[in-house]
């Protein structure tokens, strides 16, 4: 897969009252084209700084950022304007003009670029349809719900044929139901328009729901990064376990029973494990806890399962391991 952005040893420092603060510290990262790339981290991790480098609000102190292989900070004049129409930002607090209608807000980036009124209106109406705001063209932001305001923000980002959306905590001002609706909209638009989406958030449920690749940041550094499926398949991945946390253990297994912590990164192909184990091993199994989650656009599951191995070790344990290997089921490690 080709890369949309490549960050090579990028650092960003700020000076505050004589002290140097490392907002980003030697960050190297590849954001694949067409990915829904979630960047997660607690407050102060450096997420906003990273986004502000991508939308040219800041320049790196050192290191290089490439957009489709070209160093970003080589862009001059018209190239910068072109870049910023292709790489648009969606904001946490929507950043709408309160004295302008929905239609005017959405058409604004085109007006700034000197696009004719006829084309502006056509494009703005198309964007309104894409985000499902028909009928709200003449409403003012104060007459809209939070979710509707963010739809305006998304339409405004799309109006100049954006190919990349940079999303700055786009759902943190919304309730959980509206969050899901907005994430579904972003996922739909990504597929329809072949977008790359980079989303920063402190909320794990947001990355779990929408992202297909995830980076965890802490103290200005990348802790871990990877595709959701790959991270789930890696038993040692901290990020993988955060994406699919261990369900409650419940009480301890009975004497002679052995508890397995099973991660099914590809539920559809792997769920036959249980019937397979029953058929081939004639072993009694009891699901203690767990369930199926929607992760990175597909179903994944984590189950705690007790197997009755009384008097049947080690043969059954070995046979179980064989089936787990055949099915690429990962044994989890609780954090
Ligand atoms: N313009 C600035 N001047 C000085 N320090 C800054 C500036 N911008 C960011 N910082 C500092 O850099 C560090 C990283 O901040 P950043 O906003 O990128 O983190 P974040 O992960 O986005 O956090 P949050 O989720 O709270 O926005 C913080 O310690 C912050 O105080």
TrEMBL record:
Record domain ABC transporter: where: 5-244
Q: Name one GO molecular function term.
A: ATP binding
Tell me yes or no: is Cell membrane among this UniProt entry's keywords. yes
Q: What is this protein called?
A: Methionine ABC transporter ATP-binding protein
Q: Which organism is it from?
A: Ectorhizobium quercum
Q: A Pfam family matched by this chain, by name?
A: ABC_tran
**What's the family?**
Belongs to the ABC transporter superfamily.
Instruction: Kindly indicate whether the keyword Transmembrane belongs to this entry.
Output: no
Q: Which GO annotations describe the biological process of this protein?
A: amino acid transport
Q: PANTHER family given for it? A: AMINO ACID IMPORT ATP-BINDING PROTEIN (PTHR43166), METHIONINE IMPORT ATP-BINDING PROTEIN METN (PTHR43166:SF30)
Provide the alphabetized UniProt keywords: Amino-acid transport, ATP-binding, Cell membrane, Membrane, Nucleotide-binding, Translocase, Transport
Question: Domain of life here?
Answer: Bacteria
